[in-house]
Inverse folding.
């Protein structure tokens, strides 16, 4: 299962760095890590130029938008680009969402262990946990 993880970011460079690290640490790494920079003004574009060139098992893709299109616009641009890539699934996330180390592997295991459902599964959703407040959102 080839996954393209799409992360939308806007002026939260430190959050983005943490999120990118979480995807590099996945037990099942995405094939592509696609970052949509929603016209950040905090050094994100400059950081992503360097990040793109760093060695990784993951293929890195950056989309720099000319203006901030909001979360929905960022995800639209990211999914549109992801559809051009060779992937089976698109994982979407904000820059301040940090997946557990086995999140992508868990999705793959669930999908692979339910062959009778595969033709009917178009989307899967994970639990979002606010660890600061220790509750599921």
């Amino acid at each position: 299962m080839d996954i393209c993880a799409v992360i939308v970011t806007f002026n939260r460079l430190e959050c983005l760095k943490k999120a990118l690290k979480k995807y590099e640490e996945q037990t099942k790494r995405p094939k592509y890590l696609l970052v949509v920079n929603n016209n950040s003004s905090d050094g994100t574009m400059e950081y992503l130029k360097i990040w793109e060139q760093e060695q990784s098992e993951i293929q890195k893709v950056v989309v720099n938008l000319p203006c901030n299109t909001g979360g929905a616009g960022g995800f639209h641009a990211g999914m549109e680009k992801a559809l051009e890539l060779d992937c089976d699934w698109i994982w979407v996330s904000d820059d301040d969402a940090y997946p557990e180390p086995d999140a992508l592997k868990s999705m793959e295991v669930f999908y692979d262990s339910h062959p009778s459902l595969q033709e009917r599964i178009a989307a899967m959703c994970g639990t979002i946990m606010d660890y600061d407040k220790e509750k599921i959102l």
